[in-house]
Amino acid sequence: MFDWRWDFTFQILPRLIVATGNTLLAAGLGYAIAVVLGLALVLAQRTPFRPLTVVVREAVEFIRSTPLVLQIFFVFYVGPQFGIRLSPWTAGMIAIGLHYAAYLSEVYRGGLECVPKGQWEAAKSLNLSTARTYFRVILPQALPPSLAGMGNYLVGIFKDTPMLSVIGVAELMHTANAIGSETYRFLEPFTLVGIIFLCISLPTAALIRLFEAWVRRKLGMG
Amino acid sequence: MDTTDVSAFPLRLEGEATPMVSFKKVTKSYGSLVVLDSLDLDVAEGEMVTIIGPSGSGKTTVLRMLMTLETINGGVIYVDGEPLTHMPRGGGLVRADNRHMRKMRSKIGMCFQHFNLFPHMTALENCMEGPVHVLGLAKREARERAEELLAMVGMADKRDQHPSRLSGGQQQRVAIARALAMRPKVMLFDEVTSALDPEVIGEVTNVIRQLVAEHNLTMLMVTHQMGFAKDISDRICFFYGGRIEEQGSPDELFGNPRKERTQQFLSAVKEAT
Ligand SMILES: Nc1ncnc2c1ncn2[C@@H]1O[C@H](COP(=O)(O)OP(=O)(O)OP(=O)(O)O)[C@@H](O)[C@H]1O
Ligand SMILES: [Mg+2]
């Protein structure tokens, strides 16, 4: 290797491992927000109240057609002009959660469309309430066909967390960059960041496939 | 939307001979296609009426309207004397709202051609979902009733299986138990044997025979099995082009059809089997 310094590598490793914790936290929190909010977005688009469905559909379309980094900047820097002052973490979680919620709502919509019409009719003929129909009958069946897409976006949100570095969230990329500016050595920190991302992304993708099979079995739909 | 004035219809049907189900001048259309044309049909309490007729004649639509899976464009449907599609308001009838529809729907149960069991629930769970969460029964009571009904349809030993592990005939029997668990007054069967292999049709028709013999349910059935219809029905309605072309007792209709279209249909069916 040209000029790779092992002593330096081991010296910065602990700092990067701490930052990995922040990256995982950011991805986890952002994803949790996206999973719940995405469901709210898709359900809102299915209410009989037209104005709501139109506004939500346009909002989802808007979020999906503008860059994540712009949304992060927007929440963090434009918010204060309206008196909304948020910490980098809060602003980052709102922006990335909302961004992925828009994508997940489309995944859920696809999953919902996989549920046969007859299931809705059976639920109605048993007089189940709308809430019960969704949460006990329809959503459990929409889950398995949604899992592959949900998994892709889990890996996606994880890989997008470096964008939070632009507003100063101390995740992996931000930390590697800081190390670089302090020591003028960029090779080791950025290489390590790449390796850490790889070591987490690859097994996650495999775990998601196992999880999918497990869910199908659990729901008796294997 | 409404194409007829409903002000001429009574707020409720009363008197000794009030039918359990009553279609009054019911019209249904999809766009410009008129599927049912001013249909009048009464079904008495405890009566078993079978609807036969060519494909597209509106048989399924009749049942789906009664189950409130389809809206109607004209006329009024009454169940148990009360309007189903409408409700009394300010001395007249207006379109039924959700609450009225839910109240009326509880009187009706339906079995579908493709069973439509919930695939992620066991046979028992399928039969308990409605009783627990709609009727508000205690879990234990709902379970006992569901087990009784599954035993009645001969599915007691499969109660913990998911539908994917059951044959078509078994799934349909569970679906019948599921509908009965809601204690409906009217049961609807839409070609419940059409998706089944010939050798398992008997296990489903036997359950329906048993219902007819032992329970005082009002039933409305669509089927292509003329022999079965003849055996168990009190009355047969032959549908043609969204109207009742001819109706009568099974002996009259099968033995001595008066209308030419009925004769043609019956001889075509006979040739096919
Ligand atoms: N959702 C719909 N949109 C448009 N047309 C429809 C719809 N549902 C039914 N139809 C039409 O209504 C007519 C009656 O349909 P219906 O399903 O009641 O017939 P059926 O007598 O049950 O026929 P089959 O024996 O084939 O089941 C048909 O011409 C059908 O194409
Ligand atoms: Mg039909």
Structural notes for this entry:
The complex is a heterodimer of chains A (222) and B (273). Chain A has 8 helices and no strands. With 222 residues, chain A is mostly helical. Chain A has one domain (6-218): MetI-like fold, CATH 1.10.3720.10. The longest helix of chain A is centred in the N-terminal third of the chain and has 39 residues, at 6-44. The radius of gyration of chain A is 21 Å and the shape is flat. Chain B has a 6-stranded mixed beta sheet, sandwiched between helices. The mean pLDDT of chain B is 94. The termini of chain B are far apart. In chain B, helix 3 packs across helix 4 (139-152) and helix 4 packs across helix 5. Chain B has helices at 59-66, 98-105, 123-133, 139-152, 168-180, 198-214, 226-232, 250-255, 260-272, and strands at 21-30, 33-43, 48-52, 74-79, 82-83, 86-89, 92-95, 108-111, 186-190, 218-222, 235-240, 243-248. The longest helix of chain B has 17 residues, at 198-214. Chain B is α/β, with parallel strands linked by helices and 273 residues long. Chain B contains 9 helices and 12 strands. Chain B is globular and about 50 Å long. In chain B, strand 6 and strand 7 form a beta hairpin. Chain B has a domain at 119-183. The interface between A and B is medium-sized, with 20 and 29 residues. The complex binds adenosine-5'-triphosphate and magnesium ion (MG). Magnesium ion binds at residues 59-60, 191 of chain B.
